[in-house]
Amino acid sequence: MKLETPGLNAEHEFTEAARAAVYNAIFSRRDVRGQFLPDPVPDAVLSRVLTAAHFAPSVGYMQPWSFVLVREPAVKERIHAAFREANAEAAQMFEGAKQEIYRELKLEGIREAPINLCITCDRDRAGPVVLGRTHIKAMDIYSTVCAVQNLWLAARAEGLGVGWVSIFHQAALRETLALPPRVFPVAYLCLGYVSHFYQRPELEAAGWRQRLPLEELLHFDRWGEDGGEAAEALKRQVRSDQNAATSGGTFPAKE
Amino acid sequence: MKLETPGLNAEHEFTEAARAAVYNAIFSRRDVRGQFLPDPVPDAVLSRVLTAAHFAPSVGYMQPWSFVLVREPAVKERIHAAFREANAEAAQMFEGAKQEIYRELKLEGIREAPINLCITCDRDRAGPVVLGRTHIKAMDIYSTVCAVQNLWLAARAEGLGVGWVSIFHQAALRETLALPPRVFPVAYLCLGYVSHFYQRPELEAAGWRQRLPLEELLHFDRWGEDGGEAAEALKRQVRSDQNAATSGGTFPAKE
């Protein structure tokens, strides 16, 4: 069979302003738990962020995701009860001062956010053998996470906050949302307009954990190799870019 | 312990042009296998896309990712050999016409792309108990995938192509890159400037599989519930947005 030649995209350059907008979405995106406004999200906006999710990369073009939109208060209440139960167990796992901070943190906005959204992965969507998934079976789950991140960035550009709630027994999610066995709940998101976005991640502001220096996370050709002198310029650049991204300064810097 | 009040971000609105730029990156992003140019990627550009990855959301602010940059031809050759071996096994799993198409598809650009990048997840980065990962242990892997997608979109805005190669035995990756047991290889990416980006995903153009209608992937409050009349307007909007995104037309549409 002859492969069709796809059309070329002659306009693949982004302007500097467009590039900066993409970075701005990436650097100012936050996990939102406590700043949701009750304002309804218009269908036009919801549709755009869902479309962004749907255009994520997927292994073998499998598009394994589905979207369960939760707006009914009774369903949210059951999900919130599942969170409360798991969160009480979670708090017990931390000790001393950490447990004290843990209990003060607001970790979800299930009831306040006008929209909850469970993004799932249908592990059978494209049959038993999927191109690109022959050796790494979890690739379909990874594709679904890419859809989550697309939605998250699109939401930021729309002024919508998103929070990913992960403190659940998955069985409780499955049961409340009536997911069939082949459908795996990957992410439970709270979504809505917000009063503001924090300048820094909340866990950083709370002293829970700090941003790691990116330059220390780089390896060259093999794990543990520091790249020697040839890598020094890149490391300096990374240090400077991390500072710019953290302080919300102009990014990308002029070359 | 008192929690610090993080600063507010007063400028959280994106202009319409900035919003459109984010969607443009999302909709024009492609998995690139065959269009890599040999042009070197400047440190300034590489640093920005790595910084974008580093600003991904992470469970408990764990930042579990590391970046193994592969540029040495001998390492690329070993990785390519691992791909060839797995890909020969993979081809056997498809039957008839599918196998014929499979063998014609170019599925990686390991040797042509100037940079290969393995993004890994250190499962012990923040100790045994991680906030938000108490019940769903894979959350650290999901965080790492979010970093992949951030990098992918930033790369698109920089005019850089990215291809995710997943046809490997993970043990071969581990061995070639000397990853310690606690470090899990999540994504192996090929990265470089490209002659062009395809207008449609290659697997779609090759007739392998088509884009699914997003409206059929929506559920309301519970799996299998179609939302009735109240959901009709959203579904219509989704249909129209999917068309706009596919055809590369103006998006977001004016409200």
Count the E strands of chain A. Answer: 7
Query: What is the terminal-to-terminal distance of chain A?
Result: 46 Å
Q: What is the largest interface, and how many residues per chain?
A: A-B, 143 and 143 residues
Point out poorly predicted stretches of chain A: 1-10
Structural class category of chain A: alpha+beta
Whole-number average pLDDT of chain A?
93
Describe the protein's architecture and organization.
The structure is a homodimer of 255-residue chains. By secondary structure, chain A is an alpha+beta fold. Chain A has eight helices and seven strands; from the N terminus they run E-H-H-E-H-H-E-H-E-H-E-E-H-E-H. In chain A, strands 2-3-5-4 form a four-stranded antiparallel beta sheet, with helices on both faces. In chain A, helix 2 runs antiparallel to helix 5 (139-157) and helix 3 runs antiparallel to helix 6. Chains A and B meet through strand 1, helix 1, helix 2, strand 2 and helix 3 of A and strand 1, helix 1, helix 2, strand 2 and helix 3 of B.
Short description:
Chain A has 255 residues and is of the alpha+beta class. The first copy, chain A, contains 8 helices and 7 strands.
Summarize the SSE layout with pairings.
Two copies of one chain form a homodimer.
Chain A: E1 8-9, H1 16-28, H2 43-54, E2 65-70, H3 73-92, H4 96-104, E3 115-122, H5 139-157, E4 160-165, H6 170-177, E5 183-193, E6 197-198, H7 202-205, E7 218-220, H8 232-247
Antiparallel strand pairs in A: 2-3, 3-5, 4-5
